[in-house]
Design a protein that fits this description.
Length: about 325
């Protein structure tokens, strides 16, 4: 009633839903508006906003996402794909591709946490898939495990030279294979903790691949130029680095553990802490310098991260 829902497919595995609802008072008749319930409605909306990532700079907004890592299986043998998908369905979000070309396309679309690919496949081999993904800024950080039925040293060398992170020969023992998958995912998570210690992005230390280093340098340049702009948001950030909002979100989450909006706010707060340490600027001046609209919101965000107000922070360092 007085709204519209539209649905459309984006590829074989993505469905987009769009819900449009009128919110202006003039869209309704007087007898359709009940004033005494407005407060309750606001409380409901507030509780919902805490669970939905709407890429805003407002506080209390968290991304609604599964905690399960995303694993893309690229394998032309149906039985192998189905076996792994069935064995890991409760541990990972599983996506599948039946050849290398489709695997490359899906990896760019969903930006998974890990790719497992056979080497010998139609349309594009696992080596070609690895070369393409490791050279693409959108996917260069993704760990890749290559599978082969040939244990020859030459094929394994080609796989590792392409940038593959691990190499597994078929037939494999599932518990050992799963441990290697877990180790790669955990190693990436461990790298994220290093980011929290950096005032600025140290590309060479945080980057996983040379392509990641190029990406992080680009990100730092964008931040240097636009972070002080209070209107700078996730949409503008994605456009500046040449990615979709989803791709940038997945990339930053993989490297830093933060969503795009959280990453922007984190960088502003780190910059603020550095300015407080090295200048005589007032707290209000610092807030506006790093792109916060109001000093009160800056103080609230600062306290959440540093467990103290900017004033208390200054007292400790003076």
């Amino acid at each position: 009633y007085k709204g519209e829902v539209t649905v459309h497919m984006d590829g074989a595995s993505v469905i987009h839903f769009q819900v449009e609802l009128p919110i202006s008072r003039h869209c309704f008749k007087d007898n359709q508006i009940v004033e005494e319930y407005q407060k309750a409605k606001k409380e409901v909306i507030s509780s919902i906003s805490d669970t939905i990532d709407i890429d805003t700079d407002e506080p209390g907004v968290k991304p609604a996402k599964s905690e399960l890592p995303i694993v893309l299986l690229v394998e032309d043998q149906d039985e192998v794909r189905q076996f792994l998908a069935s064995a890991w369905k409760t541990k990972y979000q599983i996506f599948e591709a039946e050849n290398g070309k489709t695997g490359i396309k899906k990896a760019v679309e969903i930006v998974p946490d890990l790719v497992i690919s056979d080497i010998r496949m139609p349309l594009a081999t696992g080596i070609e898939l690895c070369n393409v993904l490791k050279a693409d800024e959108r996917t260069s950080h993704i760990p890749i495990i290559l599978l082969t039925g040939n244990a020859g040293e030459e094929e394994e060398l080609k796989g590792l030279q392409s940038g593959a992170d691990d190499f597994v020969t078929k037939p494999f023992k599932l518990p050992l294979f799963e441990r290697r998958v877990q180790n790669l995912i955990e190693s990436r998570r461990a790298l994220r903790s290093r980011y929290s210690q950096e005032i600025i992005l140290k590309a060479k230390e945080i980057a996983i691949t040379p392509t990641d280093e190029v990406f992080l340098n680009k990100v730092q340049k964008v931040l240097d130029e636009q972070l002080s702009d209070a209107t700078f948001n996730a949409k503008m950030f994605a456009s500046a680095v040449g990615m979709s909002r989803m791709q940038l979100h997945r990339k930053l989450t993989a490297i830093t553990g933060l969503s795009t909006t959280e990453f922007i706010r984190s960088q502003r707060l780190k910059q603020a802490a550095q300015i407080l340490k090295t200048s005589d600027a007032t707290i209000n001046e610092v807030a506006y310098t790093v792109g916060f609209n109001t000093p009160s919101y800056f103080i609230k965000c600062f306290r959440k991260i540093y467990k103290k107000t900017p004033a208390e922070f200054l007292q400790e360092i003076n």
